[in-house]
Amino acid sequence: MGTPADHLHAWLRDAHAMEEQAITMLTSQSARLENYPELKAQIDKHLQETRDQVAMLDRCLERTGGSSNIKDITGKFVAFGQGLSGLFVSDEVVKGSLASYTFEQMEIASYKILIAAAEYAGDQETKRVCEAILQQELAMAQWLDEHAATITRKFLERDQQGMTAKH
Ligand code: MG
Ligand code: FE
């Protein structure tokens, strides 16, 4: 058993670890993309948003719980992200889009949980921060959703023409 504030703090730490993993995934995807400039630009935009999200979560963690060691749970999300990332496979841009969309859905679910928990715990500032982050995750998920078919077609066209298609 724990207080609502304890649970909120623990879930904020989970979100922090999730965002650290997002930075790792987005950074490696961006570094490898060469032939998909729109996707790369969108990833870079979301990478900057994600760095800001980590900073916002840091402040929520400081406010809600003192001096927890954030690092000790990061591993939970590392394996998940690595399994999804699909880097270095022959269709990595397609696998990467799939991984990114999946990851954004996890983030959306996580912030909806945090918003409900913050509301329950009476933490209006954390609720406000998580609502702002949620909008960024929804926008990224929507962009990926709207561009999945185009990216797939472009991959297939380039591959068909013997051009570098995978990234
Ligand atoms: Mg995020
Ligand atoms: Fe995200």
Primary descriptors:
elongated; Ferritin; 167 residues; single chain; 5 helices; mainly alpha; binds fe (iii) ion
Task: Give a written overview of the molecule.
This protein has 167 residues and is mainly alpha-helical. It has one domain: Up-down Bundle (Ferritin). The protein has 5 helices and no strands. Helix 4 runs antiparallel to helix 5. Bound molecules: magnesium ion and fe (iii) ion. The site of fe (iii) ion has 7 residues, from helix 2, helix 4 and helix 5. Fe (iii) ion binds next to helix 2, helix 4 and helix 5.
List the helices and strands and how they pair.
Layout: H1 4-32, H2 37-65, H3 75-85, H4 92-121, H5 124-160
Helix pairs in contact: 1-2, 1-3, 1-4, 2-5, 4-5
The structure holds magnesium ion and fe (iii) ion (FE).
Order of helices and strands: HHHHH
Which segments are poorly predicted (pLDDT under 50) over 5 or more consecutive residues? Answer: none
Measured as a percent range, the helix fraction is over 70%
Kindly name the structural category. mainly alpha
Ligands in the model, by name, code or SMILES, are: magnesium ion, fe (iii) ion
> How far apart are the termini?
48 Å
> CATH-wise, what's the superfamily?
Ferritin, core subunit, four-helix bundle
Enumerate how many helices there are, as a single number: 5
Average pLDDT, to the nearest integer?
91
- At the first level of CATH, what is the class? Mainly Alpha
The CATH architecture term is Up-down Bundle
Kindly give the count of domains: 1
